Amino acid sequence: MADAKRARNNAMNGAKQDLLAEALAKVANAIFITDPHGRIVWSNSAFWQLSGYSEREVLGRTPSFLKSGRQDASYYSEMWNTVRSGKVWRGKLVERRKDGTLFVVEETITPLMDPSGNITHFIAIQHDLTLREKERERTHFLAYHDSLTGLANRAFLLKFLEEVISVAKREGHMVGVLFLDLDEFKGVNDRLGHRVGDRLLKAVAERLNSAVRKTDMVARIGGDEFVIVQADLENPESVQVLGQKLVNRIGQPYNFHGVKVNIKTSVGIAIYPQHGNEPERLLTLADRAMYKAKKAGGNGYLLVNQ
């Protein structure tokens, strides 16, 4: 009787172990188990899929092959000090796949101990956050950028302008603000449709980006309104040179799959500190100068008070 009961218990325990092994192997979360020295002794298919490495390629290696460089040595030191003391570690890691792309995981590492309290293994469970992180980054991007052109939007522009003015105050530089409005853009939309109009706005954005320095900012703040902030300006002549450059570059013909488009632009220019100290004030003055340039016939630039 005792032998039969023992056999049933062994069978039940064996079935439970088989079920646990199958669950770990097939669970959606990436899992790997290491020995006390951190060498991988087992991993599941979700881990192979997430990392891009095969079972054979990871066996016997420490997880350091996944390092992306986004976490410094102290981060890993704190992690291992925690788990080697017998405690559970939880944290976010940016890892690198075999193909070089990055992925983000929320990882939990749990020490496994024998009856004497000695650590025999570590089990790491990774929850893939890559899609969530990308969505979060995109949400943040859209909060500060124009969805059509990818340029900075008004909120980002004001933030940037405030920062460069603060630096200019300390270092004695000037800041140029150029307000651009396309001449007769509505006519393009009316004649050729909004699809061509959108392509034109994207092409204008590309030309503006290629015309400025990396330290400058190009923003789209309205339908066909753009603003350029020229940081670290040394003299007023430089911003006027840029104004003429923009007029010339925007005025070059566009061709969208056989559809030819010609557009001009009017530019208003304000300079910190001679025309104002506040971002909104400089934008308002540059906007007014732009309208004066447009009333004068367009296709040109005008400095405030000219």
Beta percentage is 25-35%
Low-pLDDT runs = none
- Fourth-level CATH superfamily of the largest domain: Reverse transcriptase/Diguanylate cyclase domain
- Alpha-beta content class: alpha+beta
* End-to-end distance: 108 Å
Helix/strand order, N-terminal first? HEEHHHEEEHHEHHEEHEEEHE
Domain count, please report it. Answer: 2
Model description:
The structure is a single chain. This protein has 306 residues and is of the alpha+beta class. It folds into 2 domains: 2-135, PAS domain (Beta-Lactamase), CATH 3.30.450.20; 145-303, Reverse transcriptase/Diguanylate cyclase domain (Alpha-Beta Plaits). It is 45% helix and 26% strand. It contains 10 helices and 12 strands. A 5-stranded antiparallel β-sheet has the order 2-1-5-4-3, with helices on both faces. The protein has a 5-stranded mixed β-sheet with strand order 7-8-6-11-12, with helices on both faces. A hairpin with a 5-residue loop joins strand 3 and strand 4. Helix 7 (185-192) packs across helix 8 and helix 8 (194-211) packs antiparallel against helix 9. The protein is elongated, with a radius of gyration of 31 Å. The model has no long low-confidence stretch (mean pLDDT 90).
